[in-house]
Sequence to fold (591 residues):
Amino acid sequence: MDLTRDEREVLDGSRGEIPRKLLLTMVRFGEAMDAERLVPVEGPGHLVIPESKPGVGARTEFLESLVDAGVRAALPFTADPATILNETLSDLTDDQRKRLARAYPTEVRYREALTKLGLRDAGGLTCTPWFEEVANRPSYGQIVAWAESSAVVYANSVIGARTHRNPGILDLISNVVGKTPLAGLLTDEGRRASWLVEVEAAGPINGQVLGYIVGREVGAGIPWLTGLADMLEGGEHPASGKFLRDFGTNASVGGGVGLFHVEGVTVEAKRYGRRLIRDDARRLTIDEGQIESVGASLRADRPVEELRPNKVLLGCPHLTYDQLCAWTDAVEGELARAGRDRLAVETVFVAAPDVVSRFRAEHPGFATLAVAGGHVGSFCLEAFMQDPILAPACVVTNSNKLRYYSRNVYMLDDEALLRVMVTGGTEGAAAASTTGPSGTSSGSHA
Amino acid sequence: MPRLQGRAVIGGEVAAPAAVSRVGFNPFASFCDQFDGGIDAAVCGDPQNTELFGEPLTGRIVLAPFCVGSTSAGPCWERIAELGLAPAGLLLPGEVDPLTAGGLILADVWLDTAIVCVDRLGPELLDRVETGDELRVGRDGVVTW
Fold:
């Protein structure tokens, strides 16, 4: 790899041991990817290591050693959702709180160190940093160093920014060093499609299901999808953004997709057309029957009466402001129809702190939801379900990502979720609730 | 003696028995139950990996077509190395992915724990090696057994 004179001096150790090891990490990362050289990071980062839990976050001592060495990111970064330590879930027992505190003994020090290294503020703790309320949205073509699979694939594919799928800790190191290897997804050639995926389906398509299928098939490849432009109206359909978020998240869950192109829809596909498809691209056809059968296999394999869920979790990845509003309106309507004023099953909606702040300030449903026993928070549902201290016995959701990474989590469509929230799901379907508020029910592309 | 030549991503010499997965190896799913330590050896805890689920991985050389999983791979590899529970090595037929490379480099640079990794060994790797085969990996990326 070509190194500048300045970089060679740092690697010689003349600027200190911490700067040497930080740069050495980036150089070796670049060598593993056959990078030509390191290039500057041009925009704020997004990190996947917000919490101190061993194996999930960085080592607290490591962060503090960087602080002591005077290291700091030039641009403030955002990071994935915070731990549940400061949330006020109604059914969290004192015993659970004590055990949690023991599981995160260095959390305060960790957050302090991360802040000193450049964490923007608590409002930036979300897996959806590009939402307008959070406003960490890179520009087209901008080189950034992001982690969090769902954020990386959105930034690359929909925004057209350029970032590796950085592993946790490397995300921080890239941003404090201010450099990232020029290779793979940062290069024009590395962004060309290695798979041509023809989607043959007449009806609306569920983005989660299609993304999951594509991810399973292409692994870490770059798919170019055809057959979706009409449904998404060239990206102008109001539901297009959600479809692309769902697709990307699940393509990264099912495989390791960091970039996808949708013909006539995504930004680089529109700009460059089929020149972006490699000559040796492999071909794949996905039809309606396959989408339907895989979709069915992801949904709960037994009726709600048998599951008897004790929690409904929504927001993996974090909900948009509009989704929060739509769910609240739907819950209010369903409560009224059922003649109830309290939710039958504890229901948790999670969104970025800045989105929740806006929701609290602007939407009257926030108060209604609180009175009805709903909870609006900003923690990570995946981390919540993976924590043995917290994980409830049976959870229902509409997120395939949450289902995939957790145990005891079952997928339902939105109408069924609404019934579970309001009645426990053991009463018949309310006739009026035919359309789910988030649009992730099977058959919808909203 | 069978021999394959690859690229040493994390160089080192190691001799250990193979643990072969013919599906993608997910480090986070394999190790996340064992981050608290207090055990002598890590076993594969990924129920979706039917070949390796329940197999001890500490000190063995893992072979897989590729690695899968989320960007949490970095802290995961580092933690399992910090606990002294890491595999001795990882062999891949194709290119190492950035998540795996980054995690292994973190362990090497910051914990001085080399989990030897050789990639670009070719597709025959997984056809020719079985779980339990005694492998020897050279600093130059040569694998023999």
Remarks:
- Chain B is about 25% helix and 20% strand.
